Amino acid sequence: MRGAALRGAETAALGRRRAPTRADDRLSRAPARRAVTVQSPEMAELSRRRLCLGLGAALLAGCRKGQVDAEAPGLLIRGAQVYTEGGLREVDVRAVGGVIAALGAGLEARSGDEVIEARGLLALPGGIDPHVHLSAAAAPPADKDDFCDNYADGSRAALAGGVTTIGAMVFPGATARPIVDAVDRHSESARAQASVDVMLHPVVFEPGPDAVAALAELRARGHTSVKVFVVMAEFEARRAGFVELIREAGRRRMLPLLHCESHAINEAEIDRLMAAGRGSLRNYAESSPVASEVAAVREAIAIATTTGSPIYVVHLSSAQALDACRAARRRGVPIYVETRPMYLHHTRAAYARADGPLYVGQPPLREEADVAALWDGLARGRVDTIGSDHAPFRMADKLNPAATVREYKPGTPSLQMMLPMLFSEGVRRGRLGLDRFVAATSTNAARLFGLYPRKGALRVGADADITLWDPARRRRIEAAQLQSRAGYDINLGREVEGWPVYTVRRGEIAFADEQILAAPGSGELLVRGPHQPLA
Fold first, then answer.
1. What is the number of other CB atoms lying within 10 angstroms of the CB of residue 258?
2. Is 419 exposed, middle or buried (0-12, 13-18, 19+ CB in 10 A)?
3. Inter-CA distances, 80 with 89, 103, 121, 381, Å
C-alpha cells in the first residue's frame, strides 16, 4: 500500500460499523468545543465567497450573509481518516445545511445530530463522474434505441458506487432551438428524478450562428461545457464551422469536450471488413484502429493550438494518443485527458468471447501495452480524469446476433463499479497513490467543469459530498448489487478490495448499508462557473 498515512488507516480497527444514529440529547447539551479548522479564517472566508459564486443567483444573497449556522444540528462523521488538500488526517467532519461547517479533532455531537462512527474508514471527496449517458424519459425507457437508465436509475448507480455528481451528455432534438430545448428537457428530468447533483454537457452537431448564439445563452445559465463528435460525418463536412464554435467556447471560458476518432478512417475500415465477410463484432477492434484515434487527437490539438481554446479529450484509449496529448501539453497546448474504466481493465481479447459484444464501445478496447500506458498516465497526472461513459443498453440489444461492425449498440453500463474497480486495481495494488485517485475521480473534474471549490475537496465551506470507504472490505461484483436497468456489468465476478460503505451528498446520507436512501428529485441541477485550468 502506498503512503504512510493510508497504511495507518488500513491498520486501524475495522470492527462492525455503527449505523447512523441520533446523538444522545444529554451528551449534545454539553458545551461544545469549537472545531480546530484545517483552514485559516482568511482561507475559510475565501472558500465561502467562492462557494457563493457556484451556488447561483437564488442562493447568493443568503450565502453572502453567512446564514449557514455552524452550531445547528447536522451530520457528524467521527474518527475517519479524512483526505483534505493537505493529505490524510484523522479528524471529525461536521456538515450543516449541506456544506462542511467544521473539520477538527474531537467534535462533539449536538442535539439532533446524525452521527456516523467512521473509525477505520477513509473519508474522500464524493466522486464526480463527468461523462454519463442517461435518458430524459420520465419513466424507464422502453425504446430499445434509447438508454435504459433515466436520471433516477443513473443516480442510484452513482450513489451505490460512491459518486455524488454526474455530468450527463445532452443530445439535441429536431426543434427550432435544438441545443437549448434539449438542455431544458434534461434539466426538467434531472430536477424531478436525480438524487445526485447533475451538470449537463450539451452536444453540438451543427455549428453556425444559431449554435454560437446558443453558447451565449448556455453560458449565462451556468452550463459551461459543450461536446463535439469529431468522429461523425458532420464534423468532416463542416470543419471550419466547428473550429469557430470551439474558438467561441474558449473565449467564453467554456470547455469543449471532443470525441476523437477519424470518421474517414473508420468508414474505410468498416467497408473493408464488411466486403471481406468479416463484419462480426469479433473484429470490432479493427473497425477503429489506433491510427484513427491518433489522427483525430492530432486534429483536436491543432484546433486548440489555433484557437487558444482548451479542449478535453473524452475516453482516450491508446498509448499513442496519450503520447500526442502529452507532447502537446509540453508545448503549452491546453489539452486535458479523460479515460474510462473499460480501457484500464480489459483488452481487445474480450471481443473473441461469446459475450464479446458487451465490451463494444467507442473507441474499441486496445492491447496490454495501452492498458499499462493509461495506468502510468493516471499515476503521473498525464491522464486527468476518469469518466465512466455509462451507456446503458439492455443486454439483449447488445447481444443482438444481427449486429455488425457497422450497426451495433456502443457503450457499456459502468457508473456503479467505476470507483470500486479503480480503488481496488489502483490504490490497493499500488498503481495509484491516494492523491492521484482523489484528483482523477473528483478534484480535477471539479476544476475543469467550473465546480471547484464548491466540489472536489473536503474543506470548510464546500459541499458536504463525502464517500466513506472501507479500504479492506472485499466484495465480489454480483448482478444482484447492480442498480442500472441494463442488469449487467462487464466486471461481474471480479473481486474488489476497498468498498464505498457510505455516500453523503450535500450532508445527507444518500447510501448506507447497501441501501439507497436519497429520494428522487433531491439532487441539484448545478449552475457552474467558468472552466478552471489545472495547475
1. 25
2. buried
3. 8, 11, 5, 27
User: What confidence tens digit (pLDDT) does each residue in 235-262 have?
Assistant: 999 999 999 999 999 999 999 999 999 9
Q: Answer for the pair 369, 319: CB distance below 8 angstroms, yes or no.
A: yes
> Which alpha helices (DSSP H) does 20-169 contain, by range?
25-29, 41-55, 57-64, 151-160
How far, in Å, are 31, 319, 435, 436, 533 from residue 381 at the CA level?
46, 14, 10, 7, 14
**Predicted structure pTM score:** 0.89
Closest CA to 308 of 251, 252, 257, 256: 251
Answer whether residue 136 shows pLDDT above 80.
yes
Instruction: Classify the phi-psi angles of 79: left when phi > 0, otherwise alpha if psi is within -120 to 50, otherwise beta.
Output: left
The amino acid at 530: P
Burial of 329 (0-12, 13-18, 19+ CB in 10 A): middle
Q: How many CA atoms lie within 13 A of 326 on its CB side?
A: 15
Q: Please state, in angstroms and rounded to a whole number, the distance separating the CA atoms of residues 358 and 411.
A: 8
CA distances from 156 to 58, 210, 231, 477, 523 (A): 27, 36, 31, 16, 11
Contact 486, 416 (CB under 8 A): no
Question: Strand pairing of 87-90 and 127-132?
Answer: unpaired
- Comparing C-alpha atoms, which of 211, 218, 164 is closest to residue 186? 218
Helices in 433-487 by DSSP H: which ranges?
A: 434-438, 444-448
Supply the DSSP symbol for 427: I
Q: How many residues does the chain have?
A: 535
* Beta bridge partner(s), residue 305: none
Q: Give me the percent of the chain exceeding a pLDDT of 90.
A: 84
Q: Tell the residue number behind the cell numbers 485550468, with chain if given.
A: 533
- What is the structure's pLDDT at 67? 59
Q: What is the pLDDT of residues 13-38, one digit of tens each?
A: 223 333 444 333 322 223 232 233 33
Residues forming beta bridges with residue 99, ordered by sequence position:
96, 463
Q: What is the mean pLDDT of residues 477-499?
A: 97
- pLDDT per position as a tens digit, 34-75: 233 333 333 343 344 344 434 333 333 334 334 567 678 999
Angle at 243 between CA 237 and CA 244, to 5 degrees: 115
CA-based torsion, 348, 351, 352, 353: positive or negative: positive
Q: How far is CA 304 from CA 308, 326, 338, 339, 529, in A?
A: 5, 14, 16, 19, 21
Cell of 13: 480497527
